[in-house]
Amino acid sequence: MDILSHASPTAAPQYDETESELARLRAQVASLQSERAALWWDINHDDLTGLGNRRLLVNAGPSLLSSTGRCAVVVLDLNGFKPVNDQYGHAVGDDVLRTVARRLSRCLGDELVVRLSGDEFAAILTESSMPGHGSDWSSRVGALAAAIAEPMVIDGHQLRVTASIGVATTSGGDHVTVAELLRRADLAMYRAKADRYCSNVVWD
User: Fold this and answer.
1) Active site residue 186
2) What is the pLDDT of residue 1?
């Protein structure tokens, strides 16, 4: 009885101190993990739109290409965006970019969508991500162009922008790099930009 009565008062504080230290370490680890996740997000995402950026496309693109069958890289540039900036100011222009970003995300679902720079965006479309569409890239890109072209009301102004779109496809077995697909899609986009009657150009 004397042994137990002498042991218990000292054991309890030691146990409490150990638990307290473990709790402190867990909180520290959780804080570091949160900071790491926030840093990763900042590095790989666009501040204005919340979309991924070019860095994310370059880093995540290769694994997407290797893990899927057929896919397409899409590059698009907005038509009519500069006049909006010039006439209504950059704040309205920023809202236009955010609206386009939301429409891209809504239209493409879980696909990787990024803002490359300015009013230029890109995406990687995979064959299996949209049931019912399969590898019919033209219908998917057409739906994307139509979504962007819908009128938008910003700061009391009804505005409308369209997109020149370039598409580069891969069969999944030709081992084309993300950089090369971006180059092809970019060239196709400029071809679309040069022809005002063409909504998108597919690079074969």
Assistant:
1) no
2) 47
